[in-house]
């Protein structure tokens, strides 16, 4: 089983644990991608219904828990290729912080731009049910109208970028 980095209040690695043995006190690391296209749309992804956390809910284009031996950047590069099949993106560091709701984790956002259509992406169906491009305005409306359709922290993340 893959081990993930457990960190202290300063985001310093203190140990590694099997993903399945996390408890409420564990703080871990997550990398996430805000992906845009030339039309100014944002890619969002519906999480697989088989996922333990937020199954079937819409979230950011790519997100992943940082595994043992990885840093935030290495993780987002790996997850982007695994989840949506894109490589060679120019990742710019975005917001960094700590999630205060529910699960405890530090997050590092990355921002990238692509001209790829959804048909050009290779979606990993074990991780992602579907992806779609959406305007920022439409995303705001959908989150306000149907918040239960989105991961719990989507409203906070939306506010960072819009």
From TrEMBL:
<dbReference type="InterPro" id="IPR015797">
    <property type="entry name" value="NUDIX_hydrolase-like_dom_sf"/>
</dbReference>
<protein>
    <recommendedName>
        <fullName>Nudix hydrolase domain-containing protein</fullName>
    </recommendedName>
</protein>
<feature type="domain" description="Nudix hydrolase">
    <location>
        <begin position="26"/>
        <end position="156"/>
    </location>
</feature>
<dbReference type="Pfam" id="PF00293">
    <property type="entry name" value="NUDIX"/>
</dbReference>
<dbReference type="InterPro" id="IPR000086">
    <property type="entry name" value="NUDIX_hydrolase_dom"/>
</dbReference>
<dbReference type="GO" id="GO:0003824">
    <property type="term" value="F:catalytic activity"/>
</dbReference>
């Amino acid at each position: 089983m893959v081990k993930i980095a457990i960190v202290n209040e300063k985001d310093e690695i203190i140990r590694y644990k099997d993903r399945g043995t996390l408890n409420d006190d564990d703080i871990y690391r997550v990398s996430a991608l805000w992906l845009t296209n030339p039309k100014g749309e944002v890619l969002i992804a519906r999480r697989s219904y088989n996922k333990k956390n937020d199954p079937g809910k819409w979230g950011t284009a790519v997100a992943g828990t940082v595994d043992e031996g990885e840093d935030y950047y290495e993780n987002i590069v790996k997850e982007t290729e695994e989840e949506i099949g894109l490589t060679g993106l120019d990742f710019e560091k975005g917001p960094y912080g700590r999630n205060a709701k529910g699960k405890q984790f530090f997050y590092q956002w990355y921002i990238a731009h692509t001209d790829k259509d959804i048909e050009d992406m290779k979606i990993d169906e074990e991780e992602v049910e579907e992806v779609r491009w959406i305007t920022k305005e439409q995303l705001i409306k959908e989150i306000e109208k149907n918040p239960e359709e989105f991961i719990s922290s989507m409203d906070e993340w939306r506010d960072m970028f819009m």
